[in-house]
Write a structure and sequence with these properties.
The protein is of the alpha+beta class. The chain folds into three domains: 2-236, Up-down Bundle (Rhopdopsin 7-helix transmembrane proteins); 245-335, 2-Layer Sandwich (Beta-Lactamase), CATH 3.30.450.20; 351-510, Reverse transcriptase/Diguanylate cyclase domain (Alpha-Beta Plaits), CATH 3.30.70.270. It is built from 18 helices and 14 strands. It has helices at 2-26, 33-55, 59-88, 94-99, 104-115, 117-120, 144-170, 173-197, 205-226, 234-241, 262-268, 272-275, 336-350, 360-377, 391-398, 400-417, 441-456, 486-502, and strands at residues 124-130, 137-142, 247-251, 257-260, 296-304, 307-318, 327-334, 381-388, 423-428, 431-437, 459-460, 467-468, 471-478, 508-510. It has a five-stranded antiparallel β-sheet with strand order 4-3-7-6-5. Strands 9-10-8-13-14 form a five-stranded mixed β-sheet. Strands 1-2 form a two-stranded antiparallel ribbon. A hairpin with a 2-residue loop joins strand 5 and strand 6 (307-318). The chain is rod-shaped.
């Protein structure tokens, strides 16, 4: 029982390291997770080797399992440094990232010197067993290669820890707690090593380090699940948060600004140092009430350089509001160009590309709306269906370009003559539809006649001679109190137009 209780902390440490290595390896798509898995698995080998060394009765068996420990002891510092470099990818680590792999041959040499020590005794000196309770202890003096290993292990571990510390000092308030957890967890083995080295605690170095591996990995694993640390790593902050074209703000639950990126500084027209800790409501038109519901989206106009720029605000609540540590992540996206493009697309969708007036779909939609309004208000509504006389011969004799210019000029002429409430659109080919709200048949006939006379005087320059055209029109009216649908009105206008063409064209005929 005494033996089991003595070994229990080491067994738990080894099991934790092994479990963490499996979890990290399965998350191999995340930056740094593979190296972290190697660190945890190498610490499993180190701790497991020590446990079996304790239990081994003979000197030769203890030396064998001591060599097993050195597999992990040699790999851990190198994998630890690779984890720091690969996970954070700071600018200062780019050179380290390209050179740390050159240390692999040294690691192999150190491992080979430990396993071949019986041949040269330059790693360990003479080894012996010292009786103890509950186990006999393996003791040996150190040789040259053990000294090289000590320098190798301390140098790489301290360098990796400095990288974590640098990141901690450079992190904003939103990320400092996350990085701090990694720094604490990763520093435990080094701290235990130093405590033993300076005899602050009586446990030998080679026994205390495996003892804290489990706690170290457990802290980092807790950070992994509690903060989704790998997903929200400072890599993302450096290359996404700091360099995203969108403005990013982090607010606490009372609306105070915890962090922001350079783009948000430009949008708020304030330096980061002058913004942190202030309420978002200090920067009109922002209001803290916008973020009370957690997630949401809205559009606002901000004055920049005397001009109004449209922004889309998208907010998300990260964390549990009841915990007091939840953060509002606010994205400010410049949508000025998008709104302009949407407006252009909407214009193209309802406009005839040649003439610039409403296309068939839009003019029919507006006509339907006006007809419904006329029925509700008991006011008349008139339609004029217009056709360019002999337009095919214009295309045949003068060319399609002259024909296009003729339609463009004609629609401009008619648009200038119509009132603001009147609706004008291309019905198809050389046919056009005019909707005259609140206009009876007599007034509509006068409008049509006026357009006919103006068109007679209209001409378009062409290569051989100016192009002159006339128009024929059919007019109909939806009378108040008489139910009528748009299809019926169009059919009536089409019949009147047919009569105008049959009468010799350049005519206006009303449907009676």
């Amino acid at each position: 029982m005494r033996t089991f209780l003595y070994l229990l902390p080491y067994i738990l440490s080894a099991l934790i390291c092994f479990a963490v290595s499996l979890i990290a390896w399965r998350r191999s798509s995340v930056a740094g997770s593979r190296a972290f898995a190697v660190v945890a698995f190498s610490e499993t080998i180190w701790t497991g080797g020590l446990i079996i060394q304790f239990l081994s009765p003979s000197l030769s068996d203890k030396l064998f399992w001591n060599n097993i420990q050195f597999i992990g002891a040699v790999v851990v510092p190198l994998a630890y440094l690779e984890f720091a470099v690969d996970y954070y990818r700071l600018p200062i680590t780019r050179k380290i990232n390209s050179t740390w792999k050159y240390l692999i041959p040294l690691a192999v040499i150190l491992l080979a010197s430990a396993w071949s020590d019986v041949l040269h005794n330059s790693f360990r000196g003479p080894a012996s067993l010292i009786p103890g309770d509950p186990f006999d202890r393996l003791v040996f003096s150190t040789g040259l290669w053990f000294f090289v290993y000590t320098v190798y292990a301390f140098s790489l571990t301290i360098l990796a820890s400095l990288l974590f510390l640098t990141r901690y000092l450079q992190s904003g308030s939103l990320y400092r707690s996350q990085v701090g957890i990694v720094l604490v967890g990763a520093s435990l083995p080094l701290g235990a090593n130093l405590l033993s080295f300076f005899a602050i605690i009586s446990i030998p170095i080679h026994e205390i380090i495996p003892l804290v591996f489990g706690a170290s990995n457990l802290i980092i694993a807790w950070a992994l699940y509690r903060y989704h640390l790998f997903e929200l790593a400072p890599v993302a902050r450096d290359f996404l948060f700091e360099h995203m074209p969108e403005g990013i703000l982090a607010l606490d639950q009372s609306g105070r600004i915890l962090d922001l990126n350079p783009t948000a500084e430009c949008i708020l027209a304030s330096k980061k140092s002058a913004v942190l800790g202030r309420s978002i409501s200090d920067f009109p038109p922002f209001e803290t009430s916008w973020f009370n519901r957690g997630s949401g989206r809205r559009e606002i106009a901000l004055q920049q350089g005397g001009l109004a720029t449209l922004y889309e605000i998208q907010s998300s609540l990260i964390g549990e509001p009841t915990s007091g540590s939840a953060v509002h992540l606010v994205i400010l996206r410049d949508i000025q160009d998008r709104k302009r493009a949407e407006s252009q697309l909407q214009h193209l969708a309802i406009t005839d590309s040649l003439t610039g007036v409403h296309n068939r779909r839009q003019v029919l939609f507006l006509a339907t709306c006006e007809l419904a309004r006329a029925c509700e208000t008991h006011l008349p509504l008139s339609l004029i269906l217009l056709d360019v006389d002999h337009f095919k011969s214009v295309n045949d004799t003068t060319g399609h370009q002259a024909g296009d210019r003729t339609l463009e000029g004609l629609t401009y002429l008619i648009s200038e003559d119509l009132g603001k409430q009147d609706i004008f659109g291309r019905y198809g080919g050389d046919e056009f539809l005019i909707v005259l709200p609140e206009t009876n048949l007599e007034a509509a006939l006068r409008v049509a006649e006026r357009l006919r006379k103006r068109t007679e005087k209209f001409s378009v320059p062409a290569r051989s001679a100016p192009v002159c055209v006339t128009i024929s029109m059919g007019v109909t009216t939806a009378q108040p109190g008489r139910p009528c649908d748009l299809d019926t009105l169009l059919e009536q206008a089409d019949k009147a137009l047919y009569q105008a063409k049959s009468a010799g064209r350049n005519q206006v005929v009303g449907f009676l």
